C-alpha cells in the first residue's frame, strides 16, 4: 500500500471540507517531524485548566519513535461540564517538539462541526520551526454566545460535536487527528 | 471601487495584527506575554523555540510571536520577520552594563532588515520594579533611539512582574499599526 493518501490532501482541499472525514487521511507513519508534548484547555476568565495532558519528559529520541500507532490513538473523546458552553473565552495550548532537521513550513487547519455542519475553522501557519526546538502556541478565542436552547441541544447530542485536525509540513499532510465532544450536566 | 477599498475589504475579513517580540535572553519577553494574557508567571523556563499567543485585543486578532533570545538561536529570528506589523523590543533595564552594547547592536541590526521596514517599534524598558533599573530615558540614550528615523517608535518603561504600563505599550503599538494598515476605518 502506498504511504500517500488516496486523495491529494492539500490545505486548500481540507479548507473545503464541510463534514468530518470518514477515515484518517494519512498514515501515522507520515509524521516524522513533530511530537506533541502538552495539550491544555483552559477557561480564560478563571484561568482554570479544563483538560490537560503532558508527556512526563520533553526529551524525544527521534531515532526510536513508535510510528505504528493504531487509529484509536488518533481519536480523542472529551467530556466537559456543561458550563463549558457558557464560558466567554477558551484558551487551547499546544506544546510540541520539532525534529532535529527543523521544519520549513508548518501549518495547522482544524475544522469543527456540530451535527455535520461546520461551526468553526482554524487555519494557523507556524511557518519555520527551529531544529530541535520546543514550541508553544496558545489560541484564545471568544466562544459564540449560545442561547439556552442551543446549549440544551448540544448537551442532548453527545459526540455530535466533532473536529478534524490536519497538520501540514510544506503543504503535505503529516498528521490527522479527530476529536468528539460531549457535555455533561 | 478603488484598490484601497479592495485591500481594506480583504484585511477586514478578520483584522489581524502580527507582533514579534524580540530582545536578548532573560529580558522578560515570555513573562510579558504571559502577563498580558493573564497567566501564571511564576514558572517560566527559557524559550527554546517560539511561544505564540493568538488573542483578541481591541477588536483585532493579535498573533504575538515570542522567539527565544539565546545567542545560539538569534540567527533564526529572521525566519519570523515576514508580515510583521509591529516589533516589540524588550530590554532588561537592570541588565549587566556590558549587555547594553549587545542589545543596541541587535536592535539596530533588525532595523536595517527590509522585511521589518514597515513595522512599528515598541521598546519595553522592562523590570522597572528592580531597584537598580535604569529609567526609560537612560535606556533610550544607551540604545541610541533618537537616531531611528526609519520606524515609528516609542519607549515605555514597564514591569512584567507588577504589570505596570504593559497595556499602555500594547495600546500604543496596536494603535500605531491600525492607523497605518486600517487607515480607512
Ligand atoms: N523583577 C522582575 N523580573 C522580571 C521581570 N520580567 C521578567 N523577569 C524575570 O526575568 C527572568 C527572565 O524572564 P523571561 O520572561 O524568561 O525572559 P525571556 O528570556 O526574555 O523570555 C525570569 O526570572 C523572570 O521572572 C520584571 O518586570 N521584573
Ligand atoms: Mg522566553
UniProtKB/TrEMBL annotation, chain A:
Keyword Transport: yes
GO process annotations (BP): cilium assembly; lipoprotein transport
InterPro entries with a match to the protein in the record: Ig_E-set (IPR014756), PDE6D_unc-119_myristoyl-bd (IPR051519), PDED_dom (IPR008015), PDED_dom_sf (IPR037036)
Annotated GO MF terms: lipid binding
Keyword terms, alphabetized: Lipid-binding, Protein transport, Transport
Domain of life: Eukaryota
Any one of the GO CC terms: cilium
Sequence similarity: Belongs to the PDE6D/unc-119 family.
Full protein name: GMP phosphodiesterase delta subunit domain-containing protein
Source species: Powellomyces hirtus
Automatic annotation (TrEMBL), chain B:
Pfam families: Arf
UniProt: Mg(2+) binding residues: 30, 47
PROSITE patterns according to UniProt: ARF (PS51417)
Domain of life (superkingdom): Eukaryota
Gene3D superfamilies: P-loop containing nucleotide triphosphate hydrolases (3.40.50.300)
Cross-referenced SMART domains: ARF (SM00177), RAB (SM00175), SAR (SM00178)
Record's keyword terms, sorted: GTP-binding, Lipoprotein, Magnesium, Metal-binding, Myristate, Nucleotide-binding
Single Gene Ontology MF annotation: GTP binding
Positions that bind GTP: 23-30, 69, 126-129
Alphabetized CDD domains for the sequence: Arl2
Family: Belongs to the small GTPase superfamily. Arf family.
Protein name: ADP-ribosylation factor-like protein 2
Species of provenance: Powellomyces hirtus
Amino acid at each position: 500500500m502506498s504511504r500517500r493518501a488516496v486523495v491529494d490532501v492539500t490545505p486548500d482541499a481540507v479548507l473545503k471540507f464541510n463534514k468530518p472525514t470518514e477515515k484518517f487521511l494519512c498514515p501515522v507513519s507520515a509524521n516524522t517531524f513533530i511530537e506533541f508534548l502538552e495539550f491544555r484547555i483552559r477557561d480564560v476568565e478563571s484561568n482554570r485548566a479544563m483538560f490537560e495532558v503532558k508527556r512526563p519528559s520533553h526529551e524525544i529520541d527521534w531515532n526510536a519513535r513508535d510510528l505504528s500507532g493504531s487509529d484509536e490513538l488518533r481519536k480523542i473523546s472529551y467530556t466537559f461540564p456543561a458550563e463549558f458552553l457558557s464560558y466567554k473565552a477558551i484558551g487551547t495550548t499546544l506544546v510540541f517538539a520539532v525534529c532535529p532537521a527543523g521544519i520549513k513550513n508548518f501549518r495547522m487547519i482544524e475544522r469543527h462541526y456540530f451535527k455535520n455542519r461546520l461551526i468553526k475553522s482554524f487555519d494557523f501557519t507556524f511557518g519555520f520551526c527551529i531544529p530541535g526546538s520546543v514550541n508553544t502556541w496558545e489560541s484564545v478565542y471568544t466562544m459564540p454566545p449560545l442561547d439556552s436552547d442551543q446549549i440544551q441541544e448540544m448537551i442532548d447530542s453527545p459526540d455530535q460535536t466533532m473536529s478534524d485536525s490536519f497538520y501540514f509540513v510544506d503543504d503535505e499532510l503529516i498528521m490527522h487527528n479527530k476529536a468528539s465532544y460531549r457535555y455533561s450536566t | 471601487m478603488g484598490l484601497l477599498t479592495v485591500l481594506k475589504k480583504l484585511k477586514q475579513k478578520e483584522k489581524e495584527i502580527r507582533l514579534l517580540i524580540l530582545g536578548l535572553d532573560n529580558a522578560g519577553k515570555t513573562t510579558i506575554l504571559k502577563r498580558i494574557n493573564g497567566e501564571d508567571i511564576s514558572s517560566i523556563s527559557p524559550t527554546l523555540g517560539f511561544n505564540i499567543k493568538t488573542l483578541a485585543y481591541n477588536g483585532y486578532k493579535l498573533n504575538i510571536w515570542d522567539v527565544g533570545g539565546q545567542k545560539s538561536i538569534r540567527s533564526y529570528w529572521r525566519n519570523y520577520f515576514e508580515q510583521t506589523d509591529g516589533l516589540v523590543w524588550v530590554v532588561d533595564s537592570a541588565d549587566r552594563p556590558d549587555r547594553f552594547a549587545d542589545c543596541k547592536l541587535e536592535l539596530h541590526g533588525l532595523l536595517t532588515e527590509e522585511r521589518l521596514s514597515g513595522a512599528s517599534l515598541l521598546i519595553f524598558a522592562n523590570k522597572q520594579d528592580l531597584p537598580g533599573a535604569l529609567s526609560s530615558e537612560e535606556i533610550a540614550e544607551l540604545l541610541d533611539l533618537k537616531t531611528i528615523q526609519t520606524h515609528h517608535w516609542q519607549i515605555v518603561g514597564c514591569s512584567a512582574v507588577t504589570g505596570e504600563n504593559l497595556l499602555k505599550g500594547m495600546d500604543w503599538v496596536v494603535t500605531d499599526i491600525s492607523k497605518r494598515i486600517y487607515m480607512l476605518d
